[in-house]
Amino acid sequence: MTTCPACQHEIQPAVQECPYCGVIIAKWKGYKTATGGSTQHPSTAPAPSQVHTMGYIPQSMVTTAVTLDGYRIVQTIGLVRGLVCRSRSIVGSFFAGLQTIFGGDITLYTQLCEQARTDAYDRMVQHAYELGANAVIGVRYDATEVIAGVTEVLCYGTAVKVSS
């Protein structure tokens, strides 16, 4: 048996995600076994961008709703945010400009926007984790053009501790 690094419940050694709190065990750099030893995460652990849970808070524990079905909020920690400012390179802007001539989806800008939203989300989740949260509720996005060609993307929500 090992102990989940987040909620301290005993779990089976082969478990990849804690059944109690949803933490992805393989993403931890090291966690304690029940006997006190340390186990390092496998080198095959997924990259944060693949799992989309940088701060070890599973995506299922992040919601736009103000409640989390099946869980009770035991502590409200407060506002968390992730902020990213992005611009397209001159070459990328040139090719995106060519795409506008022909119409349709401007894939270079779509990719830029999607990456900015993903990065802002990941930073928000990381902020929540650093404050001790195991969930984020009321998640929202906002975007503003700071200057011509530079966009700020903000992802924010309320960090909470929940229990089932």
- What's the story with the biggest beta sheet? 3 strands, antiparallel
* Overall CATH class of the largest domain: Alpha Beta
CATH level 4 superfamily of the largest domain: Hypothetical protein apc22750. Chain B
Q: Give the quaternary arrangement of the chains.
A: single chain
- Helical segment count: 3
Number of self-contained structural domains: 2
- The fraction of residues assigned to DSSP E strands is 25-35%
CATH architecture of the largest domain: 2-Layer Sandwich
Mean model confidence by pLDDT: 74
Low-confidence parts: 29-54
CATH topology value of the largest domain: Translation Initiation Factor IF3
Share of helical residues: 25-40%
| Overall form | elongated
Main-sheet strand order equals: 5-7-6
Strand-pairing-aware structural class: alpha+beta
Secondary-structure element pattern, one letter each: EEEEHEHHEE
Beta strands, count: 7
Radius of gyration: 19 Å
Amino- and carboxy-terminal Cα gap: 22 Å
Write a concise keyword list for the protein shown above.
Translation Initiation Factor IF3, two-stranded antiparallel ribbon, 32% strand, 164 residues, alpha+beta, 2 domains, 3-stranded antiparallel sheet, elongated, 3 helices
How would you characterize this protein structure?
This protein has 164 residues and is an alpha+beta fold. It folds into two domains: 46 residues, no CATH class; 113 residues, Translation Initiation Factor IF3 (2-Layer Sandwich), CATH 3.30.110.70. 25% of the residues lie in helices and 32% in strands. A three-stranded antiparallel beta sheet has the order 5-7-6. The protein has a two-stranded antiparallel ribbon with strand order 1-2. It has a two-stranded antiparallel ribbon with strand order 3-4. About 16% of the residues have low confidence.
